[in-house]
């Protein structure tokens, strides 16, 4: 493994982070509604679970999902139910006014981010595919550890940047004006992703 491999991996990772999905949607909404600290804590949870899926892929446990399909199915179902639950909560509170930034503990925000990425076992399959394409097959234990640490650091830096940009007073004021519509769209997107995860192959 050399620097070119890590650069290619990071470019792919950043492109995936920028694409709309439950992780990005949760991170942006949390930073806007609950503030920068909560947004960063959520991003840390998302990053840790994503790096964990990369660890799983590097250990070859994606093959376990192929050999034990019921385990993959169980994780998919649990993840789908969790995403649908979040969607219902957001939809229900869409018209509720926000007069002040809610006080959410860093631990709770972190756990929420962790659970959202845990809710998508497809991440390990994606990680496995990317790793096979980019990295050589004879990685040492140290190189695998470096890839996992790199993954965590890149995601944490990206989510910290997102939280810093989106939690500004101007961004929050814009969200307050469009809160009902934005929250309903967010709920529909998360709900659709949950249903896709539940019923998709």
TrEMBL record:
Q: Where are the transmembrane segments?
A: 6-28, 40-61, 67-88, 109-135, 147-169
Looking at the Swiss-Prot or TrEMBL record, what is one Pfam family this protein matches?
A: LysE
Q: Does the keyword Transmembrane apply?
A: yes
Q: Does the keyword RNA-binding apply?
A: no
First and last residue of the signal peptide: none
The subcellular localization recorded is: Cell membrane
Q: Which InterPro entries match?
A: LeuE-type
Keyword list, A-Z: Cell membrane, Membrane, Transmembrane, Transmembrane helix
Topology versus the membrane, per the UniProt entry? Multi-pass membrane protein
Chief localization class? membrane
What's the protein called, per UniProt? LysE family translocator
Organism equals Litorisediminicola beolgyonensis
């Amino acid at each position: 493994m050399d620097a070119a491999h890590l650069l290619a991996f990071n470019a792919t990772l950043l492109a995936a982070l920028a694409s709309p999905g439950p992780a990005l949607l949760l991170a942006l909404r949390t930073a806007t509604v609950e503030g920068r600290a909560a947004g960063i804590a959520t991003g840390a949870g998302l990053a840790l679970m994503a790096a964990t899926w990369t660890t799983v892929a590097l250990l070859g446990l994606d093959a376990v999902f192929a050999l034990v399909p019921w385990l993959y199915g169980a994780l998919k179902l649990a993840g789908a139910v969790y995403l649908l639950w979040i969607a219902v909560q957001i939809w229900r509170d869409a018209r509720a006014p926000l007069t002040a930034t809610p006080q959410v503990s860093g631990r709770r925000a972190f756990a929420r981010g962790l659970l959202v990425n845990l809710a998508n076992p497809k991440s390990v399959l994606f990680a496995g595919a990317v790793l096979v394409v980019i990295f050589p097959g004879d990685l040492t234990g140290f190189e695998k550890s470096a890839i996992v640490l790199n993954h965590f650091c890149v995601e944490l830096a990206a989510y910290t940047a997102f939280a810093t940009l989106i939690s500004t007073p101007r961004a929050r004021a814009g969200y307050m004006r469009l809160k009902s519509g934005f929250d309903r769209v967010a709920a529909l997107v998360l709900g659709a992703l949950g249903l896709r995860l539940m019923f998709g192959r």
